[in-house]
Amino acid sequence: MSMYRALIIFGLGLVSAAAVLVGLAFLIGGEYGLLVIPVVVLVVSALAYVALKGGRRRRSLLPAIIPALLVLFFTLPSVGFAFGHFDSVFDFGPTVLGVLGGLTTLLGVVVAFVTESGGRAANATTPTHWRAFTGVAAALGAICVLSAILTIAGRESVSAEEREGATVVRMKQLEFEPEVLEVGTGEIRIVLENDDPTVHTFTIDELDVDEDVNGGSEALIEFEAPAAGSYEITCEVPGHEAMTGTIEVR
Q1: Least C-beta-crowded within 10 Å: which of 92, 175, 184, 245?
Q2: Interatomic CA distance for residues 167 and 182, integer angstroms
Q3: pTM score, two decimals?
Q4: Residue 121 burial (CB < 10 Å; 0-12/13-18/19+)?
């Protein structure tokens, strides 16, 4: 096997690892309907692997493009957010693995397509190449494990004393519960409960309120009620644009 085809297989491995993490996050969060996304990525990656192993013609390279583009479509918009949330493994891990895997796969396809043109033989994979792939995979795995440790260790909760007199807002499956929050004048105290494994934000731009809550964590926010009216609540995590609510100040 050429070193470039091996590079594609390595990239597909990272893509598959990202899909597994996403699927695990969906399972933990109870979003079973969304499992179709990682399953499709895994199936297409497996088919691309079979094509690479069984074919010598350049057209056998093309199926690998599909899972690479799929994972890049979902992960590229989240790169900045993910690197800022290393302590949230289900935000950091899939994005880093997906972007690296997708780009590596595409690079391998392009180079292999060029080098294998005209029947030319490409450089064969050597044990050194496989050791390099193994080393990179091990390093990425260790980074994700560290992220998982920090995720678990960093979970926060709000005490019963702090909860007293506060309004509870749950963040679950891209929804705020309740969706409409009615408050009066004076100090507003809200306990945020994130029941998903990924980060959510509780953001009210007009009131300069912006609180990140890691998966499985709780947070207490306090601010003075503004003038009476309706104010939009959003989650500023990329891909969570549908997660909105309203705070009604009476």
Answers
A1: 184
A2: 10
A3: 0.90
A4: exposed
Q: Are 107 and 4 in contact (CB under 8 A)?
A: no
203: which DSSP letter?
E
Closest CA relative to residue 94, chosen from 37, 155, 161, 163: 37
182 and 122 within one domain: no
Token pair 């998982």 in the structure block, residue: 148
Q: Are residues 14 and 132 in the same domain?
A: yes
Claim to verify: residue 140 and residue 182 sit in the same structural domain: no
Query: What beta strand segments (E) does the chain contain?
Result: 167-172, 175-177, 180-183, 187-194, 200-204, 209-213, 218-224, 229-234, 244-249
- Can you tell me the distance from the alpha carbon of 95 to that of 101, in angstroms, rounded to the nearest whole number? 10
Model pLDDT for residues 125-145, shown as the tens digit of each residue: 788 888 999 999 999 999 999
- CATH number of the CATH domain containing 198: 2.60.40.420
